[in-house]
Amino acid sequence: MRMTKSCWMKGIELNELCKQIIQSDNSIRFVGIADKYGKQVAVNYREGLVPYLDQTESEIYSIDTVMRMNSRLEMESKLGKVIYSFTLYEKLKRATIYVGNIDYPVLMTSFDTHSDHDSIILNKILPIVRAKLFKE
């Protein structure tokens, strides 16, 4: 998914996007948007959730996530465009969705371990992102 023009939202709209994604499926634990430096610019947790990572740990994780995504982009000419990357942990699932914006390249998500993350990403999250970010 690549952005073809500057249509990225700001501030409260980014938080609303995260909230809408969280509400799209009960197994989504966390949604966050990071800037090109890995700084979290919007974050939303499922209501009542106690996160496994504290704020500092989550911010460090975001920086690492953006760095890893940047390294994946180097292989696009051989492998095709990055859509999302996925990691399974014992306590949760995490996915990083590349949205192609130079300033805000990634949308980070986590899911309960029982979730069908692939279906949720492809059939719920990506349509929401496309509808909000790719307005013609």
Give me a quick take on this structure.
The chain is an alpha+beta fold and 136 residues long. 39% of the residues lie in helices and 22% in strands.
- Total strands: 5
- Biggest sheet features: 5 strands, antiparallel
Number of domains: 1
Identify the strand order in the major beta sheet: 2-1-5-4-3
Provide the β-strand percentage band.
15-25%
- The helix/strand class is alpha+beta
Query: What is the radius of gyration computed over CA atoms, rounded to a whole number of angstroms?
Result: 14 Å
| Helix and strand pattern | HEEHHEEEH
Low-confidence stretches at least 5 residues in length (pLDDT < 50)? 1-7
What number is the mean pLDDT?
A: 86
Total count of helical runs of at least 4 residues: 4
Q: Which overall shape is indicated by the principal axes computed on the Cα atoms?
A: globular
Q: Identify the CATH architecture.
A: 2-Layer Sandwich
Oligomer: single chain
